[in-house]
Specification:
Layout: H1 2-8, H2 11-21, H3 39-47, E1 54-59, E2 64-71, E3 74-77, E4 80-82, H4 84-88, E5 102-105, H5 107-113, H6 127-140
Antiparallel strand pairs: 1-2, 1-5, 2-3, 3-4
């Protein structure tokens, strides 16, 4: 399974994962998974706190390199609140994506990628989402239903 996932990743995503794994972006080791493959889980869990936010990806329509939430011109993921420029440099600090590379995506698409297709919130029994909720609380605090 891991080999199949590695085959599906873009070379840019592989470079970004290497950067994060090496300590880039100053993320604690236990939080790195949320920006290197489990961003869909994190976005779904975080959307419970930000119900008005929209899901956005950066990359191409055929292959998203990263998924986060956008609300009031700010972007949110496991690294915290970001402006548009910070979000665009997620995977290519030396050659950022362009604004056109930010793609609004549907909740259904995000749910499909994190194994929640056909389920309705709060996704009871889905351990990946439960774990993502714990990560959201660790990063943004325990208060619920508030914009960070």
């Amino acid at each position: 399974m891991i080999r199949l996932i590695n085959m599906c990743m873009s070379s840019e995503l592989r470079k970004w994962i290497a950067l994060v794994e090496s300590g880039g972006y100053n993320l604690p080791r236990d939080m790195r998974a949320w920006v290197t493959g489990r961003c869909f889980d994190f976005a779904v869990a975080f959307s419970e706190r930000m119900p008005k936010a929209e899901f956005v990806g950066v990359g191409t329509k055929r292959h998203l390199d990263h998924v986060a939430l956008r609300q009031d011109g700010k972007y949110y993921d496991a690294r915290g609140e970001m402006d548009e420029n910070e979000f665009l440099t997620l995977t290519r600090a030396d050659n950022p994506f362009a604004v056109e590379d930010i793609i609004p995506i549907s909740r259904d698409t995000v749910e499909l990628h994190c194994g929640c297709a056909g389920m309705t919130p709060p996704y009871r029994g889905n351990q990946d989402i439960a774990e993502a909720r714990r990560a959201v609380s660790a990063i943004y605090g325990k208060r619920r239903n508030e914009v960070p």
